[in-house]
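User: Assemble these into one structure.

Assistant: Restating your components, then the assembled model:
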Amino acid sequence: MATGEFLRNQWYVAATSAEIGTTPFRRIICDEAIVLFRRRDGSIAALEDRCPHRKAPLSLGEIVGDEIQCGYHGVRLDGSGRCTLVPSQKDLPIPRNFGARSFPVIEIHALVFLWMGEAGADPALIPDWSTNTAPGWAAVHGYHYVKANYQLVVDNLLDLSHVTYTHKTTLAGPGVDDVPMEVFVEDEVVKTQRIIRNVDPAPIHRATKGLNGKIDRWQLSEFRAPIYILVTLGAEPAGTTEALQVPSHLVLNSATPETATTTHYFWSVTRCIKTDDLELSRKFLEITYTAFDEDAAILEAQQNSMDRDRSGAPLVNFRGDRGGAAARRIIATKLDEQARLAAAAE
Amino acid sequence: MATGEFLRNQWYVAATSAEIGTTPFRRIICDEAIVLFRRRDGSIAALEDRCPHRKAPLSLGEIVGDEIQCGYHGVRLDGSGRCTLVPSQKDLPIPRNFGARSFPVIEIHALVFLWMGEAGADPALIPDWSTNTAPGWAAVHGYHYVKANYQLVVDNLLDLSHVTYTHKTTLAGPGVDDVPMEVFVEDEVVKTQRIIRNVDPAPIHRATKGLNGKIDRWQLSEFRAPIYILVTLGAEPAGTTEALQVPSHLVLNSATPETATTTHYFWSVTRCIKTDDLELSRKFLEITYTAFDEDAAILEAQQNSMDRDRSGAPLVNFRGDRGGAAARRIIATKLDEQARLAAAAE
Amino acid sequence: MATGEFLRNQWYVAATSAEIGTTPFRRIICDEAIVLFRRRDGSIAALEDRCPHRKAPLSLGEIVGDEIQCGYHGVRLDGSGRCTLVPSQKDLPIPRNFGARSFPVIEIHALVFLWMGEAGADPALIPDWSTNTAPGWAAVHGYHYVKANYQLVVDNLLDLSHVTYTHKTTLAGPGVDDVPMEVFVEDEVVKTQRIIRNVDPAPIHRATKGLNGKIDRWQLSEFRAPIYILVTLGAEPAGTTEALQVPSHLVLNSATPETATTTHYFWSVTRCIKTDDLELSRKFLEITYTAFDEDAAILEAQQNSMDRDRSGAPLVNFRGDRGGAAARRIIATKLDEQARLAAAAE
């Protein structure tokens, strides 16, 4: 179980685009307090949320032009973290090295991605979540604050057999855990899938697609380190699973760690069918909120149970856990590498 | 002061009979999370409340037949903790040793007793609290969640002189602490008693027995390790204390430790007089709740005060504290013995 | 940053006079729980709020004559902490050395000062805050519970340039941080001052003095270890700063530490003009509450930010911070001396 360590040289979702405006926005990510704000040209700046002067949170201040002004003594910093003004000694030069750490930011797919490392913020490493904003697609977005470690969220999304037990009123349908889950690992990507044929539909299929007879349904999850899980879901009348080739219902998940035991869980449900159907959008939003509330409840109870467990017993991996276990190995390997590099740099 | 150590090879009251049905019931006892549920034959099972698979609390699941099914991935365990189903790999044998710890349970006296140790769950060690259910007796039951160590509750019940100061509106009457408390220690039992003669009655005596003239009253407390205190109370018109031989008003107390600083305090008030008088039952329930609320308030303040005390000063034992001190010595001796056996077993 | 250490041989404001009556009053000061109560002659006693018997808080008991009686077993202590009665053994002598620690108390200036050290409680060391009660002066009083270390409150009051950024609707006016702050240190007293000439008035000047044209304003802060800051504020029509010689508006501040991260902040605003104007008193009270609420908010955020900062970076001292830095040096020096004496005494 990861405790207080996080992969630094990675992109993390810090916020939705809609959250960031011209008033300072505070969010803790990987145990670091960050303040985000939008400059006049629409670009986003991200600084550590701690004035380098007396450590008051910058987010209590205000944005002046493209700069943030501390709400305590008025120190001003630009979006790169460079100090531009110390009011109490305007006549003196600003000390070299006085400033706040800044973080690379890329806004894309209606999300704000933050690079928590020192260097190497390669945009190509951002997941391709273009269906969030692409023409021909409709998206709904949600956020859950989950009091559990982010790897528990990753585990959850890589073994969808839990729908039978955790999501009785939304996603549960017969036969899901009768089908052995397949797992594929390529480099730093883990894919799990289940194709379930000729079963009764789950409540979500009735509500969103009007399916009432036997169906084929499929669940594909694709993990990409450190926190991204793309879930492709489908359901069609039984016998038409060639539709699997054309994913029409995606769930894009980012499990951004806040602390070792809390997660900012951002999710989007996107679809390329009936994109103008607002009632369908409403249904997807409602059902997904209901289902992810159920996930949050079990994940928080799981975290609490692990916190108070003194048995020393490990988590047990069954067939359904192989995807999550592979994701954990990838994260662990990268954490080891990070620690090795840090040690070498000292 | 006991901190995080508890006597393991002991019976603890886990719940009242009424609390346990066919939905899972969670309670933390001696710092261990336990789930209890009733089988179809009415018997009660108790398991650690932590799925051996991914550690989610079993109590979030449901009872299927005589088994509990985890609410996360559907693992099923019977009442002995043996796993009977792993849904994600139905075709494979269940791994040997995969299961949850179970605890011996005995339901008697309208209470559910749990043996927190490994072996030796001897029913003879359960206190004889048959007046809870015996013909010819009437009982009322209550529960207080007290944010204090259970030994503070034991101390409280072994020195009833505190009624004068803590229970002004219910149990306080003149002269109680003018009578030196007598203490008897036999093996693992501690008895304290005060007989107070020719005094004015306390509010409880007026309310429940209509006593308004001078009375004799007596208070006997009998501690049995680790958490049981039987209190026998009596009040009769002055000069008739031979009635002491026929206890008519008993208070049966169990101070089950939840954690080092919290206690599940179960109590029953039983009587063999006017057993059909429901109004009298109501009065006993009301007065006892009022009085034990007062105890809980002072015990929680005492615990808080001890927690923040850095003086290093010990608790002081006066004459009234000899009973509690004897009980503490018994517990300490048994804890030492437990530690010695544990060390020898390693 | 001071953590859990406090200067012991010092007077601290424990309460306002109005807070202490004939029911016990509990307050934690320098991490010690204290109970205060008023004797029949009006004098105030202060004891540690922990019964020497079983450590219940004495403040849950009651005052009997000039003594406090514990609410658990009735132990009685007089105002010097000497035990006068142990009810459970009235016939035995009270053990020598059984009692509670008492603290020297002086009630003056409508405040209750407590000496937290062992000896040397010299009344001359109490700050001269006679304007709180002196004829010809009118005073309003307030209290803020601030979840921040008291030294952050001291810093705040020694650099009033923050009014521009933190108190926009009350004290902020142009030009304050254009004037370099002057700092004077004499022995254990630190004075900072700014005189700002020919500027527009702040909201408080319009509200309380009807000043609408250009003004001269001044801010003087005088720190006296360990927690006292006398602030003298003034504003007059521009060009009349000789009035500086006659302070008419004082703010008397005591930042009593509760714990390392919480402070009892007592303040009074006193004036020698329009002393009969109750509406003016109301305005001062309202404006000061508004302003100090703003201080409390930024100080609590600063404390929280420091608590979670793992950067190891120090607080930075600019020109405006020299007063606070000098106060911190005085406290640090005295803490070192205290530690040296404590070590020598062992």
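The two ends of chain C are 26 Å apart (CA to CA).
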